Amino acid sequence: MRPLNWTPVKAPSLGLWLGLLPGLAAAEQPLSAIDWLNAPVPVTTRITPQTSPAPTKPEPPVSKSALAPDVSVSSLDEAGVAAVGLLPKSVTGLPASLWQASKSADLVREMRAQDPLALPALQSLFYTLILAEAEPPFDAGRGHDMLKERVAQLMELGAVEPAQALLERAGPDVPQLFALWFDVTLLTGTEDAACSALNAKRYLSTDMATRIYCEARGGDWAAAAVSYDTASALGLLSPVEKRLLALFIDPELIEEAADLAPPSTISPLAFRLYEAAGQALPTGSLPRAFAMADLRATSGWKAELEAAERLSRTGALSENRLFDIYTARQPAASGGIWDRVEALQRFDTAVRSRDPGAVARTLPPAWRAMQDSHLEVPFARYYAQALAPLPMTGEAHELAFAIAMLSPDYESLAAKMTPQTDEERFLAALARGEPQNAPTSDPLSRSIARAFSETEVPRDLAPLLAEGKLGEAILRAMTLFASGMEGNYTDLDAALAGFRAMGLEDTARRAGLQLMLLNQG
């Protein structure tokens, strides 16, 4: 195999990513309770056994030569806003030329083709790409289009706080970025910063609803009322904006809010104005980014649980925060999400007691609850280290082994646990990066084994890599993997072999393990 001349590292968790960003937090604490924005490095605090774990073996090398030509790299200061990112090369292992040789339209197309609910291994890789410091495409100049697309992708994932951090690192108090920044701060509850900037620099926005809201937030109610009357007279407000802003400026009209009907589409500003009028909208049917609002102390526990599950499915919420919410109090009802909470809490108690019998009894229902909510990987990240050393047999052993293979420590845990079936032996071999040396019993495992035995860059990706289009090639490999999940094993072969050729060995192994264990093939 002819891999590239850069040295990738394992994709960091969101907690590590944003823990690397001192000085990005807003002056006031956000209403959101997402803990990976401000947590120290690292944020993941799994339940671990008391015995010291064996050191993790280094991954076998997969990169020894180069495909991409040499490029000259300018510093971030020289590149300006177009190259801004949250993750430096020392964290991602990706070169500054990641996007540089590609066309903007091609990158946007590939980014928009990604599924927010893809396997967690691909979600993690996508976050790394979006948040990496890198030069923009050659046709992008020093503008803001690429940055805005990256922010849009983060919002699609529900990762509102990283989106805000990315904008604030770029300097959002410019007309090209202000509207995005304002929307993001409305969802995190930190809009006073954006409003202060707008009140000081009126040219940042020509939207009258935004100006009126910020004047009122800044305490200048008289100016807000004058702006409202002027905008109303000139027809610059929609009917919904006109009514909501009237209620916001004059609380005496709040009794008239009883018959407010939710609009067919909702903006972050309208969302906050409905909330201010005492008619907070449920977020379940709104874009994922709005779920952030339900993580504030003002929401009920059920809404908080549903939002936490929704955001965890896209990797936008850390497993620590998710399980903190699951175990925050006792369920007061039954059915649906309450049954998941009860099953998880029983298991959590058993794990903390380190009673193998109790764990064996409570693990199957807890695992089924996580399967029902598609949260198997966050569960594995949180509990795998605690489960691995416990002596278990039968179904409990099978589940503990699968959970270990879905955790970030899959390789070290595979070395400690004893596979008992051919399938487990294949998974352990895949965890070591050598599935071609294990027995295969179905088309999926044979495809994975075939990909790991490839020695050439797949022809689907070779032209892109030969032209230095590394970021585009990674996105294309992700698209091929999604096709492979539908049963197109030629695409699956190309995707996994491509990841390995590009030095993304950890992604290839984790994606293969997750595809085998989450029954999405």
Which structural traits does this protein have?
521 residues; mainly alpha
Sum up the overall morphology in one term: flat
The SS-based structural class is mainly alpha
Low-confidence stretches: 15-46, 48-79
For the sheet with most strands, the description reads: none
- Please give the alpha-carbon distance between the first and last residues: 26 Å
Strand content: under 5%
Keywords: Signal
Signal peptide: 1-27
Region (Disordered): 46-67
Describe this structure in words.
- By secondary structure, the protein is mostly helical.
- Among the domains are: 330-417, no CATH class; 419-521, no CATH class.
- It is built from 26 helices and no strands.
- Helix 21 runs antiparallel to helix 26.
- The longest helix is centred in the middle third of the chain and has 17 residues, at 337-353.
- The radius of gyration is 25 Å and the shape is flat.
- The model is unreliable at 15-46 and 48-79 (pLDDT under 50).
Give a short summary of the structure:
Keywords: Signal. By secondary structure, this protein is mainly alpha-helical.
List the helices and strands and how they pair.
Elements: H1 14-19, H2 76-79, H3 89-92, H4 104-112, H5 120-131, H6 145-157, H7 160-170, H8 175-188, H9 191-200, H10 208-217, H11 221-233, H12 239-249, H13 268-276, H14 301-312, H15 319-326, H16 337-353, H17 356-372, H18 376-387, H19 394-405, H20 410-416, H21 422-432, H22 443-452, H23 462-466, H24 470-485, H25 489-501, H26 505-517
Helix pairs in contact: 4-24, 5-26, 6-7, 7-8, 8-9, 9-10, 10-11, 10-12, 11-12, 12-13, 14-15, 15-18, 16-17, 17-19, 18-19, 19-21, 20-21, 21-26, 22-25, 24-25, 25-26
